[in-house]
Amino acid sequence: MNGTFFHRRLPSPLHAARAWVGALWAAALSVAALLLYHPLALFALVLAVLGAAAGAGVGREVAGRLRLALIVALPIVTVNVLVAREGLTVFARLGDLGPFGQGDLTVEALVYGAVIALKVTLLILITTLASLAVDPDELLRGLRRLSFRSALTASLATRMVPVLAADALRLAEAQRTRPDGLQNGASARVALLGAVLGGSLDRAMDVAATLELRGFAHHAPGSGTSSVGSNAGAGRLRRPWSRHDLAFAASAAAVVALALAGRLSGAASFDAYPLLHVRLDAGTLALCAALLVAVLLPLADRRGIEP
Amino acid sequence: MRGAGSSREASLAREVPAREMPPARVLAFEHVSYRYPGRSDAALDDVSIGIAAGELCLLAGLSGHGKSTLLRAACGLAPHFHGGRFAGRVTLCGLDTREHGPAHLGGVAGVLFQDPETQLVMNSVRAELALALESRGHSAAAVARGVEEVALALGIDHLLDRSTHELSGGEKQRVALGAALVGRPRVVLLDEPTSQLDPVAADELIGLLWRLNQEWETTIVLAEHRLERCLAVADRVIALRDGRVAHDGEPGEFLAWAAREAPALQTPGARLFSLAGLSPLPVGVKQARATLRRHGLLPQDRVAAPAPAEARHAQATRGTRNGLTGRKARKAQGSPALAMRGVWHELRNGPAILRGVTLALAPGESVALMGRNGAGKSTLLRHAAGLLEPTRGRIECAGRVALLLQNPNDYFLHDRVADELSAAALAAAGLKEFAQRNPRDLSGGERQRLALAIVSGGGKGEGDAPATIALDEPTRGMDREAKAVLAEELRGRARDGQAVLVATHDPEFACACAERVVLLADGRVIADGPATELLAGGWYFATETARILAGAGGALRPEQGAALLGALRSSARELDGTRPVARPTVAPDAALPNAAPDATPPKVPLESAR
What we know:
The complex is a heterodimer. Chain A is mostly helical.
């Protein structure tokens, strides 16, 4: 476990922005990905996200997720081609498929499946970028005002993922050093699973003891159950808005506005059925360019990004 | 933070009547007995102690004799968290632990356990430090200030925005200490906090604790196996045996008691002095050297220190591969059990962990691999065992390389020891009596032996015996007795012709089990030579005996050091017979009994000795 897919504070504008602004920006990108169906606009968004990842110093990790996206995308396209019956341009006839009817594969179903796969790819890339660049602790701290223990438990879970993964790796390594190697067979696997579970429970006990001593069970802010810490709720420490906070907030707003405008104005109109209709004019190109600029512009400002 | 702390203390004081708060004692045990659930033996048995404010108190004792349980009872984890049967009364800063749980007691006491990995529960260092204050409802400003102050105090301010999972072991332990201290507790309870640290990081941690104690009068209760690290800064030592207080006194008194009653708890320096018949037994190198200087026995004060016969013999036999002689030795030198040639391990998009390591181990040779955390020791062992492939370079093995990783628990797949190994292998490992026990219930030393037997494939016939045994930090959390047993086991394997490669931070253990030391730094071999030389000259990678004797005679074990002092004393006597004596320098209270039974009380002439 090398921690590749967990947040690390890097010198980048996205990392420098406050966590909830970063999360809002990622959410705006996701909204745009869900609103838009035009393949060119979606490609523009993919490019923008990959560029943003590069600007945030996690380009390689995010690009690495394209392989996972492909694994997910292929079945989506395949299933859509096989089950969709709305298209008119047949490119292959599989004959009578019994209860499934005629197996006519259409270009429209193929393209629509590809568009859906592109949307899923985008969502995977955006989620990966957010998990690498948005500090989960800071994000969850904001939620503690609503539910302290739930937010803390979520923080703990995110922390435990790399720890337990490292445990599993260590255990597997230890088993490989046995002279008889890693055992095969059901009983050996059950024994290994038992060992993994036992180790996890041991660790969970230690972590629980630590949390207990840190006062987890003692007090939830605002609950009024504590006899100590009378300063509870005495006011939050104001954190001034940085240039990056403002830039990413503005970018999020712009991306959503552009996606809505593209959808409502028809600049990004796309119909798959019954025949393909893909609008491609200056308006569409302008929308794609605007999306690219809106996503990437905040990453161009490199001032004050050192952790 | 101070304001918040004061108001907290005030509110705590209101909760407990003043008559129940002994003014001078921040921690008091009154006839405390405790049994863990499902256990018939008492982990604590009628323990009564009181620790005053500002004391730096050490807990000594072999593994399983109650140190950790005492600390857990002090912070309320026993019985509130662990369950079990509890009798007696513990008060921490006036709070009765029967009435206040660990969450409440954690407000007045910081607690640090052995494994930093399980004490970090957040993703970033800043969030980790803030958690305890946030949990107790401090204001955001107080939290921010507390985090800033503790980070500055511990020198971890540069780590604040780092992720906890990318910190080194030493950094993790510092952050965990910071999290324990962020509420400025009056008492800090620490359970072997240095066991996973390299000597440099361990010394830094002890230094930090000493500063806390000196500058803020923080009461420190520290359980530790390697007492030589911290005895010099301690005010008091409490020794536990079978869950009972076996001794309670100042460090000097403790050493005198340990020499009589519990030799396994002696520090190497104290053992050196008691074997040499010197007193007072030293709590640290400085005091030891002062005593030797007073007696005119400090080797560097002399023109040439004669090597004792035992040390000379040890050095002589080291040239023969642990006693292998003749054809066997030549054969051993001809074909190494393990040979690494220019081995590199370079991470993709990351640093090089190993940088052209060249190393060869002959059959029967025992080598200690030392260096700071992150120097590349564990990676090198993984390469030796074939768990990793070098990105450049070559590794050749004459046979199987058995690797014992740091945590022996990782090797256990079954609920019974008997299911892990054959009966013959268990008997060979000396673990037959534990056949029906759960492996995880064994002591640290026993678990290590069982895991070693598993990776060695013992009992499967001669053909399966590994050519090389590699061990990664096998003494973590082990007491001195268990270490001695393991060192003997490794020496035995070397005598049988197996090459032994041990990564360790413990110079005493390295000296006891290895004839050669390889020092790694930044993935490179920076020193490679006989243990007796390499463990003699440094500040960190040196045995306590060597530091006391200024490296005279090499890195000696206390027994060898005592022989050296005996030889020095004899030469002093000879000089005493030929030269005029200036004046005796032996203090009346520092009587110098004789190492040799037939020797007369010595006159140690300062001038004549030079």
